[in-house]
Predict the 3D structure of the following.
Amino acid sequence: LPELPEVETVRRQLAGSLIGMTFTAVEKTEPAMVRDCTALEVERRVPGRRILGIDRLGKFIVVALDGGVFLTLHLGMTGRLLIDPVDGPGPHSRFLFTLEDDTGRSCRLEFRDPRKFGRLHLTTGGPAPRMRGLGPDAWLGEWDADYLAGRLRGRRVALKAFLLDQSNLCGIGNIYADEILWWTGLSPLRPAGALGPDDVARLVQEIPTRLGEGVRLLGCTLSDFVDTAGEPGEFQDWLQAYGRQGQTCTRCGGVLTRTIVGGRGTAYCPGCQR
Ligand SMILES: [Zn+2]
């Protein structure tokens, strides 16, 4: 699933291509994926509006339009945002927009999603209300060891589940949680509230570092993720834990194992993650 680095990769490309452009038409909508308004309102209210900015919080992309209107996009499990796809629109094309810049150059933005778990929210005055419960952005948000220690205190939930809970920090999913934990040397099964100051310090170091590496490598492509040009990322070539159960740990030479934490498949090294 797209996590913070994959969403940031898409956001940067959208921002580089689309800021300053004006929506000219909405050619296609998918009512099942629309939130906070109707598909008809998307068709009526988006055309004519200029894109002022494209930001991100966790796994949400927020497109600010003039007139105080916001489009909030979430890729769900299999969503892709493609600019001028050569192979589109196809059967999984759910939203199709055309945009034009001041010189008359136009382009198409396609939201493609086989499984329809992606979302498009149209709101006025601020981004989607669903974002209100999110903690700070795990990569660029304003949080520190004191914040993290406060959130961890007294929690009996497993550390991996704590990292996946978007109300603590937002943007971390299953892949980057396993990677962050491997790099910290902490077990995904540790009760969150049992961490000491040294453990918290390691998390404060590794959470932004690993997410930043994911951004630098343009995301992780194991099955679905591609950028706005349809290109895969490279982070998958550098995985140390996620999906490596049964393989050798590059740090201690032990064998990584797989377990379930909070309902999610989890790979870790019992030899050096304590
Ligand atoms: Zn190990």
